[in-house]
Amino acid sequence: MYDKLTASDIKKMEEEIEHRKLVVRPRALEDVKDARAQGDLSENFEYYAAKKFKNQNESRIRYLERMIRTAKVISEDSAEDEVGINNTVTVEFFDDGSVETYKIVTTVRGNSLENLISNESPLGKALLGKKEGETAHVQVNASVGYDVKVIHIEKTVDDGKDKIRSF
Predict the structure, then answer these.
(1) Cα–Cα distance between 118 and 135 in angstroms, integer?
(2) Which helix (H) or strand (E) holds 125?
(3) b/e map of 136-147 (b: 16 or more CB within 10 Å)?
(4) How far is CA 8 from CA 43, 81, 119, 149, in A?
(5) What distance separates the 2 farthest-apart alpha carbons in the chain?
(6) Cα–Cα distance between 109 and 85 in angstroms, integer?
(7) 45-70 and 25-36 helices cross at what angle (nearest 10)?
(8) pLDDT tens digits, residue range 70-101?
(9) What pTM value is reported for the model?
């Protein structure tokens, strides 16, 4: 299984890896060394906290490197009048008439609390390629689905503000 990422996703991940290797890693190693120098390690909270932080940093580096290594690079380009990656789309839900606005992003940037929905989610998949005024059927699972109408498409781009998700 691979994640579909854009070139800007990969670039942002590479920047984070570089920062973690060149800035965070040396600081974490120094913190471990300083905590170890305080003596008895059996009751040294600072030592265990420093080790935990160092291990979390190394784990995040490995995670990002694996994501890059196994990713399939996809294009951010879409037709001017169609929903694409990094576009903001306003939809109306037929079942209750509610209106919501979402930004379609890749899986590593998805955050439903901020209305950033993944292109791999049922709603994201259904909306990709749709035009204003068109209806999209969202199939949640084999027995549940719903319809939405595309009200407006804003051709937003990746401005770098959408963060790469943690694990």
Answers:
(1) 19
(2) helix 122-127
(3) bebeeeeeeebe
(4) 45, 22, 15, 29
(5) 69
(6) 11
(7) 160
(8) 888 888 777 778 999 989 999 999 999 999 99
(9) 0.74
